[in-house]
Design brief:
The protein is of the alpha+beta class. The chain has 6 helices and 17 strands. The strands form 4 sheets. Strands 1, 2, 4, 5, 6, 10, 14 and 17 form an 8-stranded antiparallel beta sheet that branches. A 5-stranded antiparallel beta sheet has the order 3-7-15-12-13. A two-stranded antiparallel sheet has the order 8-9. Helix 1 runs antiparallel to helix 3 and helix 5 runs antiparallel to helix 6. The longest helix has 27 residues. It binds nickel (II) ion. Nickel (II) ion binds next to loops.
């Protein structure tokens, strides 16, 4: 499942993150690459121990934790602390690769299995040319270039690349999620079910308020049962 989540960062948070990282000292992007991805990676990356990276990471982490779509789409068990990259000038692309299966956080030695890869766009889409995130999925190639502040998540098993940036600069935040539900197919099913139940509940609430009925004790038994099915499936599949 490839999921776009709009407005993960508020305009204020976006401005803060950009301000913090733009003036920091960037390094060669190969600092976190494996052998294969290192041979096709040509970008810059913010060293994770820099104070600017820590502050920007905190802003992103707070925004992720409060975002219901991120939580229901990823069912996060563990999130690798967000990293930041930059594509411009001569360091402007990242060829086809699949992300490493396990990332080990240097500071804590904590392992994160990369079930889900995430990119949070930090540059306005019209401020640069190229720079599309191209993800191969079941239905072919998806070419993704979203508004600043929007996030995309896709299965960590996907072959993907970032096209060369030929004008301007592409700033992004990227990270991985180890999900409570390891299987992408099971996560996708749970997500669809959760969204459908939420829509049903909202429609019922709207109807009840039109009829001036109390929202309390008015949930249809079908909605209660479906919600129970969601939780029982999650219980069956979750590894916490
Ligand atoms: Ni990647």
């Amino acid at each position: 499942m490839l999921l776009r989540i709009p407005h993960v960062l508020t305009p204020e948070e976006l401005a803060q993150v950009r301000q913090l990282i733009l003036v920091a000292d960037w390094a060669d992007g190969r600092i976190t690459a494996g052998r294969q991805s290192g041979s096709v990676k040509n970008n810059r990356q913010l060293p994770e121990e820099l104070p600017a990276a820590q502050q920007a990471r905190h802003i992103v982490s707070v925004a992720l934790a409060r975002n219901p779509l991120f939580v229901t789409g990823a069912l996060p068990k563990s999130v690798y602390p967000p990293l930041f990259n930059r594509y411009s000038g001569d360091a402007n692309s990242f060829g086809n690769h699949i992300d490493n299966a396990v990332r080990t956080h240097a500071a804590t030695a904590r392992h994160v299995r990369t079930d889900i890869s995430c990119t949070l766009f930090l540059s306005d889409a019209d401020s640069y040319d190229g720079g599309e995130l191209v993800v191969q999925d079941t239905y072919g190639e998806q070419r993704l270039k979203f508004a600043a502040g929007d996030l995309v998540m896709y299965p960590g098993t996907s072959l993907h690349r970032v096209e060369p940036v030929t004008r301007g600069e592409r700033l992004a935040c990227f990270f991985w999620v180890e999900s409570m539900v390891r299987s992408a197919a099971q996560r996708s099913l749970l997500y669809d079910m959760d969204m459908a139940i939420t829509a049903l509940r909202q429609a019922d609430l709207a109807q009840n308020s039109e009829l001036s009925q109390s929202p309390l004790n008015s949930e249809r038994s079908e909605v209660v049962k479906l919600t129970g099915c969601y939780h029982n499936l999650l219980r069956m599949w979750a590894d916490v």
